[in-house]
Amino acid sequence: MKKIAILGSTGSIGTQTLEVVRRNKDIEVLGLSAGSNILLLEKQIREFKPKIAAVWEEEKARELRVRAADTDVRIVSGMEGLISVSRIADVEILVTAIVGMIGIRPTIEAIQAGKDIALANKETLVTAGHIIMPLAREKNISIFPVDSEHSAIFQSLQGNEKKTLKKILLTASGGPFRGKKQEELLDIRVEDALKHPNWSMGQKITIDSSTMVNKGLEVMEAKWLFDVDIDEIQVVIQPQSIIHSMVEYADGAVMAQLGTPDMKLPIQYALYYPERKYLPGERLDFWRIKRLDFEEPDMDTFYALSLAYKAGRAGGTLPTVFNAANELAVRKFLNREIKYLEITEIIEDCMRAHKNRKNPTLEEILDAEAAVYERIESRR
Ligand code: NDP
Ligand code: MG
Q1: pLDDT by residue (tens digit) across 299-326?
Q2: Local confidence band at 380 (pLDDT 50, 70, 90 cut-offs)
Q3: Euclidean distance between CA atoms 104 and 163, whole angstroms
Q4: Which are the contacts of 275, defined by CB distance < 8 A and separation ≥ 6?
Q5: For the chain, percent of residues with pLDDT exceeding 90
Q6: 41 and 48 in contact (C-beta within 8 Å)?
Q7: 213: Cβ below 6 Å to ligand 1?
Q8: Mapping DSSP to helix (H, G, I), strand (E, B) and coil, where does residue 30 land?
Q9: Which terminus of the chain is more solvent-facing, meaning fewer CB atoms within 10 Å of its CB: N or C?
Q10: Does the C-beta of 18 come closer than 6 Å to ligand 1?
Q11: CB 237 within 8 A of CB 215
């Protein structure tokens, strides 16, 4: 039995990871975690019988201790709680399906404890990739990408020499507002931005997909995962989301991974690598698909993408500023406190005001995040 733990088990990636576990019957789940959804977490505890379950809010944790008193699970809370799930003895792979920079410390702790990482939580790599990647090499652990594009790149790299890789072609659907111009985005409501054309995902990443911030984060994520320069990563709009990403080699050959939009494929590949297991579901039918389209991204309208390239090129604390400003701005947009276009305006404003610090420590990353939050809160 393979042994895993999941940070963010109640979310979109977390529940799909548990679906993969449920079907394969050869994985044991030793740790689970949620932010506040203790009803679902309780069900998961009863079904998967983990040793430890973490809830972010202490009050909710207390409530869950009462509800799950008849089980053997130990319920923990806060950052310490997340870290206990990261470090559970015997766990081989930690699935980081939590959302946001909050995943940095638990991910670092898991690597220090020798766990492999199945990484969905891209914000962690964007902000602390320069700490995480060398640490992973030092501890000789693997980071398996769960993000569909990065899994596609990882799959396309199999059997080829890394040194012959020339370019990463990172595909993007373009989101629900592809083809629109700034003036058409003035009155976008939360409901509009939450409608992704091809994928069903958590709220934050769905908004990020609509602004192209998600693609920007993925460019930075790819830089760290595959050790390439930002400018060797080219974003290609592929509206049908059939090509999940591609790589180009020295001889001009392009390798790609294609499939239906189902996150269970990259999740399962990350958990069983290098094995390719059967996965039920719809298959691509090229007679029906007939054609694939490609476009250049509109970086004037969706200029968050060019801000991401800028942050990625500069490195240091600037990617943290890009990410932290987006995290808070998206939360405010979802709470209907700001308008849609303000998300990118806020990111740009925070990046302009920031004095970049090279090679930041974890503390400096968290300080940069706090400074961004302060700046945004004191607007107007
Ligand atoms: P969801 O919002 O669906 O789930 C987030 C999970 O994190 C939930 O379990 C949530 O708990 C938990 N969580 C949130 N805040 C906290 C907190 N403060 N402390 C502890 N746990 C917390 O997100 P997704 O599954 O969509 O995304 C997760 C990550 O995966 C993100 O980084 C995203 O970018 C990435 N990703 C997602 C894809 C997708 O298809 N969904 C595709 C590729 C990458 P609760 O339920 O209690 O709120
Ligand atoms: Mg993705």
Answers
A1: 999 999 999 999 999 999 999 999 999 9
A2: low
A3: 29
A4: none
A5: 98
A6: no
A7: no
A8: strand
A9: C
A10: no
A11: no
